[in-house]
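$ ./design --mode recover --in tokens.txt
reading tokens...
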């Protein structure tokens, strides 16, 4: 099978597996795991923050950030199709007791005028705006990169209103590699950032939450409350270190493969590429084939290709470390044959 469902399906490299076996470990709840300490120090440095915290998943990282920034009864501003709103099981409401204030973005980017309009004035009837959340790259915008100048404008606006900014940077290194702008520079326009080790970077598990030292100290307790306090966690930190040290630059290969995939599929009559492919996500619309996305995904599967339904007539394909250029070419050929058979 050619698995293009997500970059979460990558398998750890041989070097990662060996690092797991030989990792130095200790009890991380006591702050004694040397591999975790090394990973958190490296991660904080790479995004220019004072401190970092290892968390088992990106969702837990985002939820820990919201819980640390906010008080129950507040409201957070989120892009209408952001991961933190769309894919995290209403956790911001269930755990943090905050409600989302949805703002429709343009390719995931929020206009300043719309943010200002969404910030609540002081009024007994309204919740207080406790946080602004951004996502870069933006999943449901097809892996779109939020421009640095847009992030800066949001951050400066937020500071004027004394509101913190959290970045769901699950794929921030994709944005960095694609633009040549460092993750540290993107993160400079945030108060906190979460990023994944287990997507394009190829580690088997884990994410990082980073911010200033006081924020991370408070976040430690929320991680514990959420069940994220781990013991000999060095065995999962070790591949995370390799992910950060050796797997970032190679993301460019995934981006090139995604662009080639979009080019090839876009030349097939009956298919339409919905997104501008900047990173590793391709969204294909199949409506003119008179077939639903779910039906098309099943047909792909029967032809040896795995993909995900994105909407009623849209299919998402994601390139990653375990998909080669030759498999991209094979995918294009198989889809061409499949579409021909439907006609």
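writing sequence...
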């Amino acid at each position: 099978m050619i698995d293009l469902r997500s970059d979460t399906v990558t398998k750890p490299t041989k070097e990662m597996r060996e690092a797991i076996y030989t990792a130095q470990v200790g009890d991380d709840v006591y702050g004694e795991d040397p591999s975790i300490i090394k990973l958190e120090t490296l991660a904080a440095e790479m995004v220019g923050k004072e401190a970092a915290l290892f968390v088992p998943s990106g969702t837990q990282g985002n939820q820990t950030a919201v819980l640390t920034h906010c008080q129950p009864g507040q409201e957070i501003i989120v892009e209408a199709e952001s991961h933190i709103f769309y894919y995290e099981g209403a956790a911001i409401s269930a755990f943090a007791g905050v409600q989302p204030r949805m703002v429709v973005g343009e390719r995931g980017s929020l206009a300043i005028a719309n943010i200002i309009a969404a910030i609540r004035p002081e009024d007994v009837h309204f919740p207080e705006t406790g946080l602004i959340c951004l996502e870069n790259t933006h999943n449901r915008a097809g892996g779109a990169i939020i421009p640095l100048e847009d992030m800066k404008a949001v951050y400066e606006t937020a500071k004027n209103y004394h509101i913190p900014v959290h970045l769901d940077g699950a794929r921030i290194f994709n944005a960095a590699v694609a633009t040549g702008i460092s993750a540290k520079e993107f993160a400079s326009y945030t108060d906190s950032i979460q990023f994944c080790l287990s997507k394009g970077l190829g580690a088997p598990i884990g994410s990082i939450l980073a911010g200033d030292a006081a924020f991370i100290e408070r976040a430690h307790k929320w991680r514990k409350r959420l069940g994220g306090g781990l013991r000999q966690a060095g065995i999962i930190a070790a591949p995370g270190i390799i992910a950060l040290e050796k797997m970032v630059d190679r993301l460019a290969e995934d981006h090139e493969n995604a662009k080639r995939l979009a080019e090839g599929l876009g030349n097939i009559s009956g298919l339409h590429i919905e997104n501008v492919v900047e990173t590793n996500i391709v969204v294909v619309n199949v409506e003119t084939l008179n077939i639903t996305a779910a039906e098309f995904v099943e047909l792909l599967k029967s032809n040896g290709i795995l993909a995900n339904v994105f909407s009623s007539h849209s299919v998402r394909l994601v390139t990653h470390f375990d998909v080669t250029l030759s498999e991209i070419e094979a995918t294009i050929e198989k889809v061409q044959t499949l579409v021909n058979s439907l006609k």
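exit 0
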